Amino acid sequence: MKVHLRTLGCRLNQAEIDRMARQFRQQGHEIVDDPASADWLVVNTCAVTGDAARSSRQLVRELNRAQPGGQIVVTGCYAHIAPAEIAVLPGVSSVVDNLHKDKLVETVTGHPVEPFDREPLERDDKRGAAGRTRAFIKVQDGCDNACTFCVTTVARGAGRSRALADVVNEIRHLHAIGCQEAVLTGVHLGSYGHDWGDRGGLVSLVRAILADTDLPRLRLSSLEPWDLSPEFFDLWEQPRLCRHLHLPLQSGCDATLKRMLRRTTQAQFRALVRAARERIPDVRITSDVIVGFPGETEDEFAISRAFIEEMDFAGLHVFRYSKRPGTAAARMRGHVPEAVKKTRAAQLLALADRGERRFNERFIGRTLPVLWEQVAGATEAGFVNVGYTDNYIRAFCIHPRALTDHITPARLSRREDGQMLAAPVLEAIEGR
Ligand code: SF4
Predict the structure, then answer these.
(1) Whose CA is nearest to atom 2 of ligand 1?
(2) Which residue among 13, 48, 152 has the greatest number of ligand 1 atoms within 8 angstroms of its CB, and so is best to mutate?
(3) Residue 381 carries which DSSP code?
(4) Given Cys at both, which of 78, 147, 383, 392 links 56, Cβ 3.0 to 4.6 Å?
């Protein structure tokens, strides 16, 4: 059978669709890029905002137009919270909620899925849906917190972790077929292992991956600030751990954080960021913030903005508050007009751009390890290679060789179109 896979939203959704791709291939099915040639079309939806839910519906309709005879299987957070709205869309043959998503391939094909510890090369296994150098690995799902704006905790249920050995095996498998970097993902990654009583579960997992695999680079996705003890930063004594922390703040105002039921304050967040910067040289700290949360006055926004400026993030995702069904915030008073949200978002996005530029330009003239991920084009002078440093600076170089899957030291020389021109250190490239 031919299978077309699509995902929206977060890295966790991406990790799940990549895993499904490997499972379908393992059963001998073909993953196709063109929906018009597919028998099955799987959509992993998102519901984090109203716009995300709208995009999910639009994608299902688009796929039905592209392949009227195909069977569309819809899963993900939107399918979980609004199955009836999905089931009536044209071409939808089944709706699989988040609690049954891990069995989706088995449900669709009727055949059980093998675990990942068999010899991969024998199966001529390929990496994720798009064969990337970097693999997203789902290690945890669900969340036991109750942030009042969040629909994810509604859509994904209680916190639960994958067995440590299962994760290590999957990473060994992916490295064996060429992956150079793994990104650990979850709904609430920092709570890994809490469901079996291990408050330091994530530390145990990272230590096990670094000890029991030869994977060159390990990256952590989003971490809630309250999960990180000062000892957590000891992990970065290991240079294979990428120096990038994504710490969602959501608001820089204590009064707003209280209404959001966020388990952090300005003072706690400031201390955490200071400790991280002291313990991890050149660490990139990025964040998420919401503007226009119910009750956010001009004064509260001004406090939030000033704190965000003080934190000097190297990147910021700015979300306009979106009323989500089933969340406590949806029932709150003081909803902020869209026009005001837009103005506030624009102010923070300008801050974010300056922060990112300031961080990246600190490294001009310095040499950092770059994982070259793809060839983005070619010129007379050579291939245009694109990749990322471990602290997530996007770099490009023009080189006679295609450097995909290689990690090389590279000297960053100047900024061009939002990325850094880099010169890879030649002798570091062997074999090609
Ligand atoms: S920690 Fe809060 S924002 Fe994050 S998934 Fe849980 S409830 Fe949602």
Answers:
(1) 147
(2) 152
(3) T
(4) 78
